[in-house]
């Protein structure tokens, strides 16, 4: 019986020591918190596992609007206004904001990653945002239809009608403050 009690006491002390060590690691400023610092051990794996489980559980399973040209065109306009500053536009350089974020935001209109996601998964992310990534939730600022239009746009980014693809890839207008002639 003494061996069992000692084993249990040892386990309790071990768990308490680990918890205290983790607290000390964070409380003394040793954890990497800057966007330019490398991730903590298991940070990406744990965050991705939690996100995937939550999205799979809560994402809408049906899409209430069609991925037709008017909805995709509206999605392109909304994407340019609300998403492009972080996620970029086809064929254009990353913005300073995107370069400075951690984790780096994915490019949603190019390559694999989002175009193979279910539209409901993208909708969940647009509506709710993703903690600790800089991805805001748009539930309070965009309508349900607008969030679906953006979600359908990114889900279909690899097969957009030419007018929508052209509108999405159009160069961003120059900032008048940067191109204005100096005051005399």
Distinctive features:
single chain; 184 residues; mainly alpha; Cytochrome Bc1 Complex, Chain D, domain 2; 2 domains; 54% helix; elongated
Topology of this structure?
Blueprint: H1 2-27, H2 43-58, H3 69-82, H4 84-87, H5 96-100, H6 119-128, H7 144-155, H8 162-169, H9 176-179
Helix pairs in contact: 3-7, 3-8, 6-7
Walkthrough of the structure:
The protein is 54% helix and 0% strand. The protein is mainly α and 184 residues long. It has helices spanning 2-27, 43-58, 69-82, 84-87, 96-100, 119-128, 144-155, 162-169, 176-179. The longest helix has 26 residues, at 2-27. The model has no long low-confidence stretch (mean pLDDT 89). It is elongated and about 75 Å long. The N and C termini lie far apart (91 Å). It has 9 helices and no strands. The chain has 2 domains: 1-32; 66-171, Cytochrome c-like domain (Cytochrome Bc1 Complex, Chain D, domain 2). α3 (69-82) runs parallel beside α8 (162-169) and α6 (119-128) packs across α7.
Using the coordinates above, name the CATH class of the largest domain: Mainly Alpha
Number of discrete domains: 2
Average pLDDT rating: 89
CATH architecture verdict of the largest domain: Orthogonal Bundle
The sequence of SSEs as H and E is HHHHHHHHH
Whole-angstrom Rg: 23 Å
> What do we call the CATH topology of the largest domain?
Cytochrome Bc1 Complex, Chain D, domain 2
Fraction of helical residues: 40-55%
Task: Give the low-pLDDT segments.
Answer: none
CATH homologous superfamily designation of the largest domain: Cytochrome c-like domain
Euclidean distance between termini CA atoms: 91 Å
Q: Structural class of the secondary structure composition?
A: mainly alpha
Strand content: under 5%
- The number of strands is 0
């Amino acid at each position: 019986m003494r061996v069992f009690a000692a084993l249990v006491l040892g386990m309790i002390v071990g768990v308490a020591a680990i918890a205290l060590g983790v607290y000390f690691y964070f409380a003394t400023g040793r954890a990497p918190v800057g966007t330019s610092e490398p991730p903590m051990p298991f940070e990406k794996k744990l965050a991705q596992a939690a996100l995937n489980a939550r999205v799979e559980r809560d994402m809408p399973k049906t899409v209430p609007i069609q991925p037709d040209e008017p909805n995709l065109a509206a999605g392109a306009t909304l994407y340019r206004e609300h998403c492009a500053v972080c996620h970029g536009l086809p064929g254009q350089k990353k913005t300073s904001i995107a370069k400075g974020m951690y984790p780096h935001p994915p490019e949603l209109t190019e390559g694999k990653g989002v175009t193979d996601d279910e539209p409901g998964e993208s909708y969940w992310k647009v509506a709710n945002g993703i903690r600790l990534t800089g991805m805001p939730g748009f539930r309070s600022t965009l309508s349900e239809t607008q969030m679906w239009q953006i979600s359908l746009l990114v889900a279909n980014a690899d097969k957009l009608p030419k007018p929508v693809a052209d509108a999405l890839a159009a160069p961003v207008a120059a900032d008048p403050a940067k191109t204005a002639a100096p005051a005399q």
